[in-house]
């Protein structure tokens, strides 16, 4: 037992414990002390962020405000640095964004004593949703025994390949939604001259817009895809068996309906899926084909007129059941 104790004591000899020191005991004033110290020791950010910074400047003006520090990374790109020796707040977040835009900097570092969870989420969202890189660092002061006090910077949030990929995906989604909205704005305006079926329907950012057929759960839809579009009668009541029954009722009149439509339709029903649809797809173009939109509007509006007409009598029969 004594031997084990002795070995343990020898093995741990000289190992101290980290002690946290109040930040204000190390840097009494945020601007005069900490910012000045960081300007002179900018290399401490390298371990926390991976950024190799140089050409540091203090108090550069951005409108009525002055950025704490602005530096350049190894590629010569500007990096805005905002310091806060207390809990993160909206004021400093707003300043950080103001400096970033005002100086057209692609990177920003926000150093705080205590990052609020909501600000952690904001910085993460900014990394996903913007072209700039944001770093949120937690600052602590430490010492071991009677050693000199030292900064401890921990990255709470930073950019990554994953966040960039998420951001690119979001950008694609936003672009897709904008194109769809513009497409449907034009389509619905064009269709008013052909049919009033969708006259009171608003454009959508989604892949379809629909109008009621007069029977709950049955809608006449315009559907848009990247390179094609379609018109459809969509059957989706809360009762899957009822949907199938309605579909089969129409299917029994398939030949008559297609003659009225002046062409074949696609009869889409799959086992295990609640909804059914009867549709006509056009390869004229989709929301990615802006130069073809007028032609797509024309075939969709004409197709919707024919589809509604082909089902009008049969819908009345379904409604009376």
Keywords:
seven-stranded mixed beta sheet, 42% helix, elongated, disordered N terminus
Summed up, what is this model?
The chain has about 325 residues and is α+β, with helices and mostly antiparallel strands. It has helices at about 1-10, 25, 30-40, 45-50, 90-100, 115-130, 160-190, 240-250, 255-260, 295-320, and strands at about 20, 55-60, 65-70, 80-85, 105-115, 135-145, 150-155, 210, 220-225, 230-235, 265-270, 275-280. The strands form two sheets. Strands 1, 2, 3, 4, 5, 6 and 7 form a seven-stranded mixed beta sheet that branches.
Written account of the structure:
This protein is an alpha+beta fold and 321 residues long. 42% of the residues lie in helices and 27% in strands. It is built from ten helices and twelve strands. The protein has helices spanning 2-11, 23-26, 30-40, 44-49, 90-102, 117-129, 161-191, 240-251, 254-261, 293-320, and strands spanning 18-21, 54-62, 65-72, 78-87, 107-114, 133-144, 150-157, 208-212, 218-224, 229-235, 266-268, 276-282. The strands form two sheets. Strands 1, 2, 3, 4, 5, 6 and 7 form a seven-stranded mixed beta sheet that branches. Strands 8-9-10-12-11 form a five-stranded antiparallel beta sheet, with helices on one face. A hairpin with a 5-residue loop joins strand 8 and strand 9 (218-224). Helix 7 (161-191) crosses helix 10 (293-320) and helix 9 (254-261) runs antiparallel to helix 10 (293-320). The longest helix is centred in the middle third of the chain and has 31 residues, at 161-191. Residues 1-9 have low confidence and may be disordered.
């Amino acid at each position: 037992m004594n031997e084990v104790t002795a070995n343990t004591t020898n093995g741990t000899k000289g190992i101290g414990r980290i002690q946290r020191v109040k930040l204000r005991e190390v840097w009494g004033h945020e601007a005069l002390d900490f910012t000045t110290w960081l300007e002179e020791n900018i290399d401490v950010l390298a371990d926390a962020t991976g950024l190799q910074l140089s050409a540091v400047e203090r108090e550069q003006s951005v409108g009525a405000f002055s950025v704490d520090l602005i530096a350049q990374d190894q590629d010569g790109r500007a990096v805005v640095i905002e310091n806060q020796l207390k809990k993160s707040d909206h004021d400093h977040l707003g300043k950080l964004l103001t400096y970033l835009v005002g100086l057209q900097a692609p990177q920003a570092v926000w150093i705080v004593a205590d990052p609020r969870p909501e600000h952690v989420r904001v910085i993460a969202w900014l990394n996903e949703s913007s072209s700039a890189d944001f770093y949120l660092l937690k600052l602590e002061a430490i010492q071991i025994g009677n050693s000199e006090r030292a900064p401890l910077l921990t990255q709470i949030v930073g950019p990554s390949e994953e966040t960039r990929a998420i951001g690119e995906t979001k950008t694609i989604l936003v672009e897709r939604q904008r194109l769809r909205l513009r497409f449907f704005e034009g389509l619905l305006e064009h269709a008013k001259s052909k049919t009033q079926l969708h006259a009171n329907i608003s454009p959508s950012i989604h892949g379809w817009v629909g109008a009621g057929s007069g029977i709950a759960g049955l809608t006449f839809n315009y559907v848009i895809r990247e390179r094609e579009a379609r018109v459809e009668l969509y059957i989706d009541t809360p009762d899957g068996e009822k949907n199938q029954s309605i579909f089969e009722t129409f299917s029994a009149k398939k030949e008559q309906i297609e003659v009225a439509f002046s062409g074949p339709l696609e009869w889409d029903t799959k086992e295990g899926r609640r909804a059914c649809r009867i549709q006509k797809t056009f390869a004229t173009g989709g929301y990615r084909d802006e130069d073809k939109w007028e032609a797509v509007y024309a075939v969709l509006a004409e197709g919707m007129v024919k589809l509604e007409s082909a089902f009008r009598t049969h819908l009345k029969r379904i409604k009376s059941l």
